[in-house]
Amino acid sequence: MDLYRVLLVDDEEDIRVGISRKMDWEGLGFALVGEAENGQEALELAEQLKPDVVLTDIKMPFMDGLELCRILTQRLPAAKFVVFSGFDEFEYAKQAIRMNVSEYILKPINAPELSEVLRKLKSQLDAERAQGRNMEMLRRRYEENLPVLRELFYTQLLEGRIPPGQAAERAARYEIDLSGAAWVAALAHLHGAGAGRELRALSVQQLFEENLRPGLCCAKVFLYNESVAILASFERAPAPIYELIEEIDRICKLAGSYLGLTLTVGVGAPCLEPEEVARSAAGARSALDYRVLVGTGRAIYIGDLEPGGAARLAFEESDERELTGAIKLGSEGDIRAVVGRLADKVRRAGLALPHCHLFFLELLTCLLKLARSAELDLEAVFGEGFTGAVQFTAFSSVDEMGDWCLERCLRIQELIGRQRTDSAWRTVEKAKEFIAAHYAECELSVEMLCEYLHLSPAYFSTLFKRETGMSFTAYVTVVRMERAAELLRTTEDKTYLIAEKTGYLDPNYFSYVFKKHFGISPTKFRAG
Questions:
Q1: pLDDT at 310
Q2: Cβ atoms 74, 99 nearer than 8 A
Q3: Who's near 101: CB < 8 A, 6+ residues apart?
Q4: pTM of the model
Q5: CATH of 4-132, one of 3.30.70.3450, 3.40.50.2300, 3.40.50.1400, 3.40.50.300
Q6: Which is it for strands 227-234 and 182-190: parallel, antiparallel or unpaired?
Q7: Which of 70, 338, 374, 464 has its CA 20 to 30 A from that of 183?
Q8: Which CATH architecture has domain 147-311?
């Protein structure tokens, strides 16, 4: 197991040296990764080192140990804190407890006592990590939530929210049998609203589960949008769709007799793959729309009302989501794969090109929405003189259409990438301007800057480090030190005034930071 990381903080060098040398760190399961001689320096080190344990004195210059613990409790919530002091005062102990401190040790510190404290902390850290990694506990939680996950899976399948190629893998994970040669989705409509709708939906679910003829199909009946959905799979294709419709029609009549309610069920066209169930569900919704024309209390099949509906080619919500995700977040290979799959979808439909016009228009609309949301120049994406429309008849084949779409998708990805780079650069430049204007304020912090930029500190810190190669704290220190050096060279101001002008309330701490940065004290710097 990896060693737990320790940061040691004490303003007395001999104490730091004594502790670091006398402790069998590795034998205790720890590694001493850093030392600091005051709380302010410890804060900067903790940002880089992410220690698991902080050992700190209470009485220190610039920032005491309790204030250090208070800040780090927010920034490193999983860390353990041990404070030690030469002052046996109860108030310190009470404050330490409020700062989420694990142990309070009185000086002088001896190796056996600190070793025992570290053993105790290791046991706590081990237990916390073991709990987080306890696969048995996670398995039990997973099994407890499995019914909910299955219902969610069926709902996502009906709504086309499962990425292509992932249905079988997810079904296996949830122990769902997705075998079958054909699939049909049906959606129930319970007439009348008001109190008790959920109970009536449960009654209808039970009615279907108890009365669907065994052997006809393998049916999953589940609650869906305050009503009921039926997902039927068949062992052979074509599916005996009219036998299923007859069964559903019979159950609609039973609902009137047994439950005293009017039940209408829309039945979608059969499909040959689980990933195409969303299309069948869309047909079921369309079938329900016809109930005002053909009547209620019965099964309504979309194939009777819209002949050829099963062969319709639709650019579905899942297609749009996948294509948008590939352009915004994926690689060039991801885009090529998605566009290739969409082209295959057009080919599998087996329709003449003119009949694929609506599919292409919906795909084009997706690209237009993406380009406009990113505020891209449409001519830069679609070509000079683009008017907002492209005729599908301009393509002589599906391959030609696919090549055209691929070129536009890659262009959008390229322009968005440039835009992100420019945006990151502008954000960092804006941050630098803010720092330049406020470096003299001792209250300057990453939180203060992020409030101005309307960004989260975590995101900004990552962005700033990536663009500048240094942390926010380190950059501010450089700005302050460069300004301090300039003031030392060009003015006769006292050191304490220069400290105030560069954001340091404590002139001693200013001198400490200056010497650490330039290697000499402010006085010697001015003299040299």
A1: 43
A2: no
A3: 69, 81, 82, 83
A4: 0.52
A5: 3.40.50.2300
A6: antiparallel
A7: 338
A8: 2-Layer Sandwich (3.30)
